[in-house]
Please model this.
Amino acid sequence: MKTETLKQKVLFKAAPEEVYDMLMDEKKHAKFTGDTAKISAKVEGTFKVWGDYITGKNLELKPGKKIVQEWHAADWEAEHISKATFIFKRIKTGTEMSFTHEGIPEELFGDTKQGWEDYYWAPMKAMLKK
Model:
């Protein structure tokens, strides 16, 4: 299967710890997505978000600094795993998040790119009211 890598920089008017918590705290994650989230806060712990649509495992967790996770979407081939990396940098106006999603199936790249923007970054910013 051919894959692509998505790279994005996203600015949030909130501290890196707040942005990290929105992604890793089950209640906050469920609130901004509007769907269920079960997220382990431990390395090697698993997660399920958007119901059971997205599943994965935490590879590296540095609160307020970095998240590295394996990701799998329900409509991908059964054994296909991608890797999402979130790096949080404090800047004057809040947080600059560098995001990389490796191993996206080529035919789903456009939808995945738009999905991150529509279903993660925009509602996170709205919830932070910033």
